[in-house]
Design brief:
The protein is globular and about 60 Å long. The model has no long low-confidence stretch (mean pLDDT 95). 35% of the residues lie in helices and 17% in strands. It has 320 residues and is an alpha/beta fold. The strands form three sheets. Strands 2-1-3-4-5-6 form a six-stranded parallel beta sheet. It has a five-stranded parallel beta sheet with strand order 7-10-11-12-13, with no helix packed on it.
Length: 320
């Protein structure tokens, strides 16, 4: 299972889910991770030197060019290897990949745990090259980490939920097949306790909108505060959903324990309407101001350049 990350400190969460979803099957599953800053020839040679029977690569926007390079040469080095691709960069244009890289055996669409297991259980004996098997509910997907995954100076990524309630037109999480699902609160607490034993510097929740369900978010925030730890926690939140009960809890957060990533995208009303973004800056900035007044949570705001109706002048206004 191959992850090619944007930088050395990152880890690939997806391939760890895949590994832990097939531990009962008779396969020796090995995780190999690289970064896009490594020489692509070195990555190719290291993969070939391990002489795998099966190579499964997680493809993202940041590693797509390196993956194309690997696919162009891997079959020459390992003529019998089976190649599986998964991830967002291949899930929605799989025919392009199969047409341009004929040595690909399978493309897994969307959340890939059940599809990956299907291939292994059937020993790859299927005529279909595009594989999409319905996943079990998210709370039934095993915790992705093992003790061996905890290494110094690595980010830890974690999901308390999958999918998104919003339908922003620029984002693949807005697709109808990206329904919002949650893990069980008690499982989340136990999994966080396990991760915290290794004293990571940061745990980044990669939920599309962490506070999509207020009571759910508050229970996790309160649990983290109660642990009295130095690990930093990162959350992507939607500020308009914050209410008084949320702010009561956030006021108790020790300084530097939480950091928020907040997607504003644009302050231009015509732009927000065009991309189906459910927000108004006049409402959003009130809760941004409340967060600022707390003075205990570092956060940054995201702006997307190039959305409809966002010209140079309105972009400057949004940034201001």
């Amino acid at each position: 299972l191959i992850g090619i990350n944007a930088r050395y400190t990152h880890q690939n969460l997806a391939i760890r889910y895949l590994r832990n979803f097939v531990t009962d099957l008779n396969f020796n599953v090995v995780i190999s991770e690289y970064s896009i800053n490594q020489n692509q020839l070195d990555i190719l040679e290291e993969i070939a030197d391990k002489k795998p029977d099966i190579v499964a690569i997680s493809v993202y926007i940041w590693n797509v060019e390196i993956v194309k390079f690997i696919l162009s040469h891997l079959n020459n080095l390992l003529p019998k290897v089976k190649i599986i691709l998964g991830g967002p960069e291949v899930s929605y244009n799989s025919n392009f990949w199969l047409a341009n890289f004929p040595h690909i055996d399978f493309v897994v669409l969307g959340a890939g745990e059940a599809s990956f297991r299907y291939l292994l259980e059937n020993n790859f004996q299927t005529e279909e090259k595009i594989i999409k098997v319905q996943n079990p509910p998210f709370h039934g997907i095993p915790f992705p980490y093992l003790a061996e995954d905890f290494r110094e100076n690595k980010y830890l990524y974690y999901e308390a939920s999958r999918g998104c309630q919003f339908r922003c037109s620029y984002c693949i999480s807005s697709r109808n097949d990206q329904k919002l699902e949650f893990r069980k609160i008690e499982d989340i607490k136990n999994e966080l306790k396990f991760m915290l034993k290794f004293k990571p510097k940061i745990i980044k929740f990669v939920d599309r909108t962490f506070n999509a369900k207020n009571e759910f978010a508050r229970q996790i925030w309160e649990f983290i505060i109660s642990q009295k730890i130095v690990t930093k926690f990162h959350f992507e939140i939607f500020p308009n959903l914050l209410n008084n009960a949320d702010f009561e809890i956030l006021a108790k957060v020790p300084k530097n324990l939480f950091q928020f990533e907040i997607g504003i995208q644009s302050t231009n009303l015509a732009t927000l309407k065009a991309v189906n973004r459910a927000s108004k800056w006049s409402e959003t900035k009130k809760n941004i101001a409340k967060l600022l007044r707390l003075e205990n949570i570092h956060f940054h705001l995201d702006f997307i350049a190039g959305l409809p109706f966002e010209d140079f002048e309105s972009s400057k206004k949004s940034i201001d």
